Amino acid sequence: MADTTQVNSGGTQPVGTGRGISRALKQALKTPWAVIVAILLAVAVLDPGNLRDTVVFAARALAHTGQYILFAVLLLAYLKATGAEAMVARAFVGREMRMIVFAALLGGLAPFCSCEVIPFIAGLLALGAPLSAVMAFWLSSPLIDPPTLLITAGALGWPFAVGKAVAAVALGLFGGFAVKALMRGGAFASPLRQVQRSGCCGCGGPKLDARPVWRFWGAAERRATFRAEFVSNGLFLLKWLALAYVLEALLVHYVPADLIAQVVGGDGVGAIGIAALVGMPAYLNSYVAPPLLAGLMEQGMSAGAAMAFMIAGAVSSIPAMAAVWSLVKPRVFAVYLGLGVLGAVIAGMLFQLAV
């Protein structure tokens, strides 16, 4: 075995240990916690009188959302431990119209991580599921899931959360039937790339032929899955929401309300269209977006523009686009984005009228 120590003025030091510490430090600096600390340090230096208000604002908002976080984490851990994601595969069996409807409905309930979406869809395509049903699932899945629903309700209220859930299903139906009509006209005769067989992070995705075990606590392996998912998802949501509420505090304190009102404060098509177009390149994590939008709405952003921004941003998220791009050809990817933007504008207009 090669010697792993090096001599310097301070004595000997294991090379592997030094590199490991350096790598861990670099990873830590990329986390939301590091961003939060950097933001608060900047406020402390540049505007020390506002530091306390910023911290108190973020802490109170996070405490208010804590009950939703706890329920969401418990629900997601339960779904993972029972293997309930296997039920989603059953939506892609039967007549095409039925598949589109069920795919749109279940897209928002699927407890998949971003890497699991790719092998799951790849498996369905390999089994012959129609592109129309897959598109319905693709469009609705990034928009809503149990944790996102609860966090959106905590930050923006239940009317907004329910409106987003309805918009997710409606967008899935819209996209699924649009693709079905295009394929009937001869489009997408060969839509697929080479189908991938494994997950992007090595997890391989959910098993399509598995059966849920609702009383999971009888199996040690499933209990371990529940504990691991509870801890990992809890920390994930906590760090992103803490960052979101710190950013919201900055937004409320430093961004002029009249500026936001001028750009996206109207209730016309223009403001909603601008919000959708801005939302796509300025994608925000689905757990970060609701608190920030709450701050924007307090500053004058219209409800319809907020809905359009959130939907367009979710459709254009990197995991969602990666899932589509990795499996289908560019023209199908372009249709996916086009349907997402159009659906976001329509959803924003309808939500503006409803509220």
Q: How would you describe what is shown here?
A:
It comes from Antarcticimicrobium luteum. It is found in: Cell membrane. Belongs to the UPF0718 family. Its main location: membrane. This protein has one domain (50-199, 214-354). With 355 residues, it is mainly α. The chain starts with a strand and ends with a helix. A hairpin with a 2-residue loop joins strand 1 (5-8) and strand 2. It contains 15 helices and two strands. Helix 4 runs parallel beside helix 6, helix 5 (114-126) packs parallel to helix 14 and helix 6 packs antiparallel against helix 8 (158-184). A two-stranded antiparallel sheet has the order 1-2. Residues 1-10 and 195-204 have low confidence and may be disordered. It has helices at residues 15-29, 32-46, 51-82, 96-107, 114-126, 131-140, 146-156, 158-184, 220-254, 257-264, 269-279, 289-298, 303-315, 318-325, 330-354; strands spanning 5-8, 11-14. Helices cover 69% and strands 2% of the residues.
Give the key terms.
two-stranded antiparallel ribbon; 15 helices; disordered N terminus; 355 residues; 2 strands; mainly alpha
Number of helices: 15
Query: What order do the helices and strands follow?
Result: EEHHHHHHHHHHHHHHH
Low-pLDDT runs: 1-10, 195-204
Quaternary structure: single chain
Shape: globular
How do the strands of the widest beta sheet line up side by side?
1-2
Largest sheet: 2 strands, antiparallel
